[in-house]
Design a protein that fits this description.
The complex is a heterodimer of chains A (about 700) and B (about 500). Chain A is an alpha+beta fold and about 700 residues long. Chain A is built from 21 helices and 27 strands. In chain A, strand 16 and strand 17 form a beta hairpin. In chain B, helix 15 packs across helix 19. Chain B is globular and about 70 Å long. Classes of the chains: A alpha+beta (about 700), B alpha+beta (about 500).
């Protein structure tokens, strides 16, 4: 029938088929290709020297190119951060380099390195820190001098500290944007404990609590020669290089503080089900698992193979059964992780549509259980070993990686050929070894399950898997939480003042008449590169709808909110607002003057008088405007003489993460019976960030159909 | 409001593309490079490096935006996508049925083209019918496809970083394998360039169309670049769109794409570089075995069209809902001209990095721009090309103001001597950037890629090693001379992105 429908062409196609018969997938040429055994990678000759101050040096001469590279391993890490100052180590790692030294500013270092095409960088991880250098051999002295200087004599310039802190805060503000990130973070906290250095993360408050003195102390205590290993390779003579390193690092004094050991992990097997609500996604992200192992465990090698059979590779059971056969997942897999210094973790994951969430989880648990029932087949064993063995050589692509590994092994007292032993052992793993490892290391009856998704659409309740804990991942604001002791006098005085303000602005009745507003403005943005002007148009329908169009160098940026949802569109891409962004918008609307002054007789707002203060040199009456439950609040400054609002202060998003914002309101003009400020200067933490100049403002202009719908 | 501004700010942090220098001078490495050619004209450049048992493969073809025929702009880029779809043997579970359905697809698309050739007299109902039938045929052909089979085999055998890229002058395919997969790579690479099956062709056009929407139609900057090139090159294909206009993409026809492939993907128009843990004799043997049977065909003609000298100032303005951007381009010779190295050095001095003339003047001192850069060799450098200067005006400052400042700097360059310390800096930076590039065998710009592109485009792989000598030999006078010779303010093309009036 189909042939007839499509006509003669198709008939031709059918004919061809009938002549040649059905194609059966044959062996391809791939199966016949000669693939000899790969020779083992050779370890380069490394010379090791320890300086009198305890600093260890690893050297490889390599004259192939006139280049010298170095990698430093620092035995310090964010595990040393005090609980109320999480983020300290990470900021030390950044500002050691960017903040300059007692010889050169950070900018001077940039200039010096850029002019010779070189780099020196520093950073800090959980259990170790790092520094690196990459420089032409002609300039190696310049490079070593800077490298030694940033490690030994950083001055932690306050401006660069602020920059690093705002970058960290930006990260905090975006951390719930991605469901998979949330799933990972919460899983880590359940495995290791939420205050564990292996799971904890920064909060606004912990970043704010970090001072320059803390950075200096962290540096003085822990960044010390006895905690430092340097690997240096490239175009030099070993003897000369050792002399140079003695010159730049030999006089570095040991610390008087002993490095605290890396914390242990106390884990008890038990099961849990955690749910994180993310309404705006239709695909659940799931992680389930428990604690993992150490690479020194006797059956470590069998767990590598076990992992590949279960979920670690293309042809794994999870891939074949959950994805290919049952079609339950877009992406599925897992890892049994073993670490050197503390136990890793075991997890399987799945991305599956909301409607198959529980089914997919059950299916994964079933596969974990099956691993303990029977040994894998010969074919499974071969493929699992191959996928480890075939990519093994890319561990030896470059000297930097090889030396890094060597320093780590030395630091933890492992043999230098550990990775080769590991490979030999993997080759010997049998199907019975895999079964034994699965029986010992997998605990399908004690799994922690973390689900990020929209439970409204799940196939069945997560309760089918166990008692469900709902986790709130909302970001603590970092806003000072001191409660204001509100007296009736403060409220009545507040009410009196806000009425004066309303009268000064045109009267409550005129505010009540306003249903929509439209404005055009120029926004002068202050960026680290300089000032930049943008045009912006906003249409608002009270109480909760708005559409904002900003013209940028990359084209239009459109943002729409309709009270429930929010979208932003740039180029062809439309992104739905996150719950944080929607929350932020609500707060912005809470500060909307028209809403405030048209609701003075209602319950929505409370006005607390705080007293007379100074704002930018002028006397103001300060009020706190708050919702009755206290969840939303900001300060409103009224000019002490005219009672016009001249300032708004609140905690909110800045371009570099959250901070204390101040808006200065000026240039009042009358529009439709109310007075509207036409110039708004915005400061974040005391620094100007933007000025908004309104060129056109109108009220009660009819709003076009579709203004507040999802941008197309 | 501020959160919205934060989004804008993120956009402003775009860093504009930097040019890449090319030079190096160590004869020890040079002596290890082995070059050979098969009877069919295919050239191999091989560098044995046993440091790790891995091999980096680069196949580079002299085909790109400059080779696209009129009416098929972007077809070189389209073919690059098709090269990952597999071959007669790989990528299908039933080659016979699949090919039969593909023939149906092509016939139907041929009928669509025939109908569309009637232009305004085309029968829309007939077209709709044909398109519906094409979709059915495509679905049938697709049902025999083993999705991503090519990439999956590659990964299974330990390969990493499978990728490809298309420019105006060349298309490069990259692959990195453990050393014992040498023969596997030879088998698969020769297969895909001898027996390509352009499967999922009509579906892939949608992917390309989407790519175009992202990178050009929705991007005022992308539009600006296309318009600059269109205005600067009236005759030479550097003036054509690399990805192609939407109407060309919509009309790509598989038999034509195959004909294009057969014309350009011939051994004499390709170079293969292999760097890593290999035995040269085995490479030669496998090269002969796998690529030898491909018949000789003459290399296609290069583009002989020459741009007539530009006799005046040209200007294009793109009006868009976007903030201003300024770009100006001067005609300069191609990468093989002796003056090119001096022009690259000039671009570095003028506009690369935070210590360059443009950045210091426009951004730091005058504060009229938030970004400023210069580059030599845009959009390609095999043929005569452009020297570009770009600026993003800051608040309250215009494209015109930036133009004025840029012109002043360029005029000063022509009359004043460049300080000796600055010449040293240029040389040190060129050397460092180059040595760093080739300290890595893999990557887009590492040793394997550089050997391949120099052999194919720049007169021999050894030019890679000679380039630094040329840079080191430059004097301040050389830079002044090329500035005077090529940067004629009255014979350039300026493209401005200006905000559309509301």
């Amino acid at each position: 029938m189909r042939c007839l429908k499509i006509g003669i062409l198709l008939f031709f196609a059918c004919l061809v088929l009938s002549v040649t018969g059905t194609g059966v997938q044959a062996e391809t040429y791939i199966d016949k290709i000669d693939m000899p055994k790969l020779s083992d990678p050779q370890m380069p000759q490394v010379e090791t020297v320890t300086l009198d101050n305890g600093m260890k040096i690893y050297l490889i001469e390599d004259h192939k190119l006139p280049l010298v590279k170095a990698r430093i391993r620092l035995a310090a890490g964010s595990y040393l951060d005090p609980l109320d100052k999480v983020g300290l180590g990470s900021i030390v790692g950044t500002v050691m380099r960017t903040g300059g030294t007692n010889k050169m500013t950070g900018d001077e270092i940039d200039e010096k390195l850029e002019s010779i095409g070189a780099s020196v960088e520093t950073g800090m991880g959980t259990t170790s820190g790092s520094a690196s250098m990459n420089i032409l051999s002609d300039y190696v002295d310049t490079g070593l001098e800077i490298l030694s200087d940033v490690l030994r004599n950083p001055v932690f310039d306050q401006e660069k500290i602020d920059l690093a802190k705002t970058e960290e805060k930006t990260g905090i503000s975006r951390r719930n944007d991605d469901a998979w990130d949330i799933c990972f973070r919460e899983f880590q906290k359940i495995i290791y404990g939420e205050d564990s250095p292996y799971a904890r993360h920064t909060e606004y408050a912990t970043v704010d609590a970090i001072s320059r003195d803390d950075l200096m102390k962290f540096h003085d205590d822990y960044i010390a020669p006895e905690n430092t290993m340097i690997a240096i390779w490239g175009d030099f003579k070993k003897k000369d290089m050792i002399e140079k390193l003695k010159k730049y690092f030999g006089t570095w004094k040991k610390s008087t503080v002993a490095l605290p050991p890396i914390p242990e992990v106390n884990y008890e097997y038990k099961s849990s089900v955690s749910y994180i609500d993310k309404k705006n996604i239709n695909q659940s992200k799931v992680r389930l698992g428990h604690i993992g192992g150490l690479i020194t465990d006797p059956d470590y090698h069998a767990t590598i193979v076990m992992n590949n059979i279960l979920g670690g590779s293309f042809g794994s059971r999870l891939f074949n059964n959950v994805r290919s056969k049952q079609g339950l997942a877009y992406s599925v897999g897992g890892t049994y992780r073993s670490n050197i210094s503390y136990p890793g973790y075991f997890f399987n994951y799945v991305f599956t549509k909301s409607e198959t969430t529980v089914q997919a989880i059950k299916s994964i648990i079933h596969e974990i259980e099956n691993m303990q029932v029977a040994p894998p087949t010969e074919e499974e064993l071969r493929v699992a070993k191959d996928s480890y063995l075939n990519s093994f050589v890319f561990n030896f692509e470059n000297k930097g990686e090889i030396l890094d590994r060597m320093m780590t092994y030395d630091y933890y007292g492992l043999p230098r050929d550990f990775i080769f032993k590991e490979k030999e052992m993997v080759e010997k793993v049998t199907a019975e070894d895999v079964l034994a490892a699965a029986k010992k290391n997998l605990h399908p009856d004690a799994l922690h399950i973390v689900v990020v998704g929209n439970a409204d659409d799940f196939d069945e309740s997560l309760g089918a898997l166990g008692a469900v804990d709902t986790i709130d991942v909302s970001i603590p604001s970092g806003e000072s939480s001191e409660e204001l002791a509100v007296t009736p006098e403060m409220l009545s005085m507040g009410k009196e003042l806000i009425m004066k303000a309303a009268n000064a602005l045109g009267g409550v009745d005129n505010f009540k008449k306003v249903k929509t507003t439209a404005s055009k403005s120029t926004v002068n943005l202050v960026t680290p590169q300089g000032e930049f002007a943008l045009n912006s148009e906003t249409v608002t329908e009270l109480p909760d709808k708005s559409r904002n169009v900003i013209i940028t160098p990359m084209g239009e940026l459109i943002m729409v909110q309709n009270g429930e949802q929010m979208w932003s569109k740039q180029g062809p891409t439309v992104v739905e607002g996150t719950s944080e962004q929607i929350e932020d918008q609500k707060k912005e609307m809470f500060r909307n003057s028209i809403l405030v002054f048209s609701n003075l007789d209602g319950e929505a707002y409370q006005f607390v008088y705080l007293g007379q203060e100074d704002l930018g040199g002028a006397a103001v009456e300060m009020l706190q405007v708050q919702s009755p439950d206290g969840s939303m609040k900001y300060k409103l400054a009224l000019d002490a003489a005219s009672f016009l609002p001249v300032g708004r202060m609140y905690f909110g998003e800045t371009m570099m993460g959250p901070g204390n914002l101040t808006e200065y309101l000026a240039d009042y003009r009358e529009v439709g019976g109310i007075k509207v400020p036409h110039e708004i200067k915005i400061e974040a933490d005391g620094k100007p960030v933007a000025t908004v100049n309104i060129s056109e403002y109108s009220v009660n202009v009819p709003v076009e159909e579709g203004t507040f719908t999802k941008p197309q | 409001m501020i959160r919205k501004l934060a989004a804008v700010f993120a956009v402003l942090l775009v860093i504009f593309a930097a040019n890449t220098a090319t030079a190096f001078d160590f004869s020890k490495i040079e002596k290890q490079v082995v070059e050979f050619q098969l009877d069919n004209g295919l050239r191999f450049v091989v560098l044995q490096d046993n440091e790790a048992p891995v091999v980096y493969f680069r196949t580079i073809v002299k085909v790109g935006g400059a080779s696209d025929p009129r009416g098929m702009a972007g077809i070189a880029h389209m073919f690059e996508h098709m090269a990952f779809k597999g071959t007669r043997e790989i990528g299908t579970n039933n080659p016979t049925e699949e090919l039969a359905w593909m023939a149906v697809e092509d016939s139907l698309f041929g009928l669509i083209l025939k109908e569309e050739a009637k232009l305004e007299n085309a029968d829309q109902a007939r077209l709709d019918e044909l398109r519906a039938e094409l979709k059915t045929a495509t679905d049938s052909a697709t049902s025999f496809v083993e999705t991503n089979a090519w990439g999956t085999i590659y990964q299974e055998y330990g390969g990493v970083d499978l990728n490809a890229g298309t420019g105006y002058d060349q298309t490069m395919y990259i692959a990195n394998y453990p050393a014992n997969r040498l023969e596997l790579w030879f088998a698969m690479e020769s297969d895909r360039f001898s027996n390509p099956v352009l499967r999922e062709f009509y579906k892939e056009k949608e992917v390309i169309a989407e790519e175009r929407r992202m990178s050009r139609e929705s991007s005022p900057q992308g539009k600006l670049m296309e318009e600059l090139l269109g205005a600067a090159f009236l005759a030479h294909p550097y003036g054509m769109s690399l990805i192609g206009p939407m109407s060309d993409i919509n009309h790509y026809y598989r038999p034509e794409a195959l004909a294009f492939f057969e014309q350009y993907y011939v051994p004499s128009n390709m170079v293969i570089s292999i760097v890593g843990d290999v035995d040269i004799n085995r490479v030669k043997k496998l090269a002969e075995q796998y690529f030898g049977p491909i018949p000789y065909q003459p290399a296609p003609m290069p583009v002989l069209t020459e741009e007539a000298p530009q006799n005046g100032f040209r200007k294009v303005v793109v009006k868009d809902k976007a903030q201003p951007i300024y770009i100006t381009g001067f005609h300069i010779p191609g990468g093989n001209d002796p003056d090119f190295v001096a022009l690259e050095a000039l671009a570095d001095y003028l506009g690369q990095g935070r210590t360059s003339l443009l950045y210091k003047d426009l951004v730091k001192e005058k504060k009229i721009a938030i970004q400023a850069a210069a580059f030599a060799g845009f959009p390609g450098d095999y043929y005569p090309t452009l020297f570009g200067v770009l600026a993003v005006p800051s608040k309250d400052h215009s494209n015109e103001e930036n133009d004025q400042a840029i012109v002043e700097i360029i005029e000063k360059l022509k009359s004043e001597a460049i300080p000796e310390a600055e010449m040293e800096k240029i040389k040190a930076r060129a050397k460092a950037s180059l040595i760093n590039q080739i300290s890595n065998n893999g990557g887009w710009g590492g040793m394997a890629s550089q050997l391949a592109s120099h052999e194919l485009l720049y007169g021999g792989w050894e030019k890679l090693f000679k380039r630094l000598d040329a840079i080191n030999a430059l004097t301040a006078d050389d830079l002044k001379r090329v500035a005077n010779k090529y940067l004629d303010i009255n014979k350039r093309t300026t493209a401005l992105l200006e905000p559309e009036e509301a």
